[in-house]
């Protein structure tokens, strides 16, 4: 059996829906610096806002994550692990260096992150740089993907990935993590 590194969905979500999400959550006084344990600009530079996981946006994202899981990953999932993260990379060199979305501490919990999901809200013409890159163990290569408005990537949370530095423009995205009971 071949390991599927990621599942890319051309969701066909209209630009006006993506723009509406940006209009609702790109509020400067509500944005906070992206958090990472031992935060450092060398690890991550972005701004975030949070969307409750019972919001219509989370419902739309659940559809894509659950379809990817049913068709490809087949993980035992219970739902969202946290709120949905609205992420903004809007200044030169904003980035998120190589990381995985699961820590060894997470694996000891009763609810483990299993699938990570990114939905791009920006047109690929709105930003330069900012590509999503994933380390693909089944092909021994790193794949670089320039996401376009409405495109969705779903991948196992244990895979190493990053967002390359922004050179110009703004890249808006939604990020969510679905989880379930510990792996057996």
List the main descriptive attributes of the protein structure presented here.
184 residues, alpha+beta, Jelly Rolls, 2 helices, globular
Report what the structure shows.
This protein is an alpha+beta fold and 184 residues long. The chain has a single domain (7-27, 44-180), classed as q2cbj1_9rhob like domain (Jelly Rolls, Sandwich). It has two helices and 15 strands. It has helices at 15-25, 56-73, and strands at residues 7-10, 32-33, 44-45, 47-51, 79-80, 84-89, 95-99, 112-120, 127-129, 132-136, 141-145, 151-156, 161-163, 166-169, 171-180. The strands form three sheets. Strands 1, 2, 4, 5, 6, 8, 12 and 15 form an eight-stranded antiparallel beta sheet that branches. A hairpin with a 4-residue loop joins strand 10 (132-136) and strand 11. The longest helix is centred in the middle third of the chain and has 18 residues, at 56-73. The relative contact order is 0.27. The mean pLDDT is 88.
